[in-house]
Design brief:
Blueprint lengths: L1 H15 L4 E8 L2 E11 L2 E13 L8 E20 L2 E10 L2 E7 L4 E4 L2 E4 H4 L1 E7 L4 E9 L6 E11 L4 E7 L10 H18 L5 E11 L1
Antiparallel strand pairs: 1-2, 1-13, 2-3, 3-4, 4-5, 4-6, 5-10, 6-9, 7-8, 9-12, 10-11, 11-13
Amino acid sequence: MKTTSLIAAMLAAAAAHVSATGIGVNVGTTGLGADYGFDIIPTFSGRVGISGFDYNHDVNKTNVSYHGRAKLQDLRLLLDWSPLGPFRVTGGVYGAHNRFDLTGQPTSGTYTINGDAYRASDIGYINGQIKQAHSIAPYVGVGYGSVAGAGINFYADFGAFFQGASASVNAACAASSSTCNSSRLAQDVAAEQRHLQDSVSSFKAWPVASIGITVGF
């Protein structure tokens, strides 16, 4: 109860000291984005932002080659500390909804899964997905410029949010067949998922590098 009251008092004090606001638009590794910034107390300001982008990227980490469609969607809440003029340290959280939708590409009408060859006409298609392991991810970084600064200004961010990565794979049958319903295929698909997961397990953080323009009031 005391903790809740303290947090409420801090938020009320911060709101009372808001003396400047601004909006910014940016582009970077999280796609196209926009931020709303506001002063809290001297040297501290806050930001709420959103960004997103879609693009194609092929994934060739296992026996199966995939055509990937990346869909980036992020919502962020950040706190900027600027003890040295325009240079700052930033921390906060990203609500990340980033994923790669994967579609397997057969070679000469054949999929090779876990070392075993299958005709694409028997299986139909293989698809999968790589997405963040944590939907709420902590962010740390450094930057330049304040979104809440008066006038038209430049701002930049460099850091990372720690979302992790998880992978899934499945095979869909074009028609009922002994091959498609075999335990061997199920075992190979499970092994393919493990291989894909192993290939992305080191991807702990999403890098953030962005530049933008702000208009402050």
